[in-house]
Design goal:
about 240 residues, 9-stranded mixed β-sheet, 3 domains, alpha+beta, 7 helices, 4-stranded antiparallel β-sheet, Alpha-Beta Plaits, about 30% strand, single chain
Amino acid sequence: MSELIRLTKRLAQTGKYSRHEADKLVSQGRVYVNGVVAVPGTKVPLTGEKIVVYGMPLGEKSDTIYKFHKPLNVLSSYSDPNGKRNLSSFPELAKMKMGYAGRLDYNSEGLMLFTASGDIVYRIQRKEFEVEKEYLVDTDSDITENWIKRLQAGIADDGEQFLPCKVCRIDANRYKVILTEGKKRQVRRMFGAAGAKVMRLVRIRICNIMLDGLPEGELIPLTDKEIKELMKCIK
């Protein structure tokens, strides 16, 4: 019988992940062994098992990137103990179990990016790379020009400081917001501080990638041109 070692050690041996990163991947349910999600403490043989990370077999590499239109009332996760609709409700995503950038809350919709490349996910999400995320925001009431200027300058909310951003009034109760960070429920918190409730929130752009009428629930690969421009953005 082949010697068994911890799955996290096997992942680290590839040189692609540190032990800490491997532990995190397993804890987040990103690693599958022979089609079954791995759990902390899983052991595997040195060879022979089919190990899949972010939808890609261990040892293989893919920089393919997909865009997805997350519908309203869908969790940005692959499971939910309470049975809410989630990413696994979409067959292609459930099969590939890729990493994703651009998490959206349950009540928001719009563009998310999926890839098996952890490095790409990391760079899109980290604020130091200043990747723009653009949103259309509908509110229950208008906010003042003074509040628009305050939001643009970066407000503090619940002990968190938001970075400066772009806020533009499009029409009555409708705004365009461009962020380079993604704190939890940030846009809703910003408008809440200004006295308005967000009624609809749609992400329409991440860097150069546009939602562009992609139907809800659809997943399509980016073009070579789109990927090239995105990679320039996250260098």
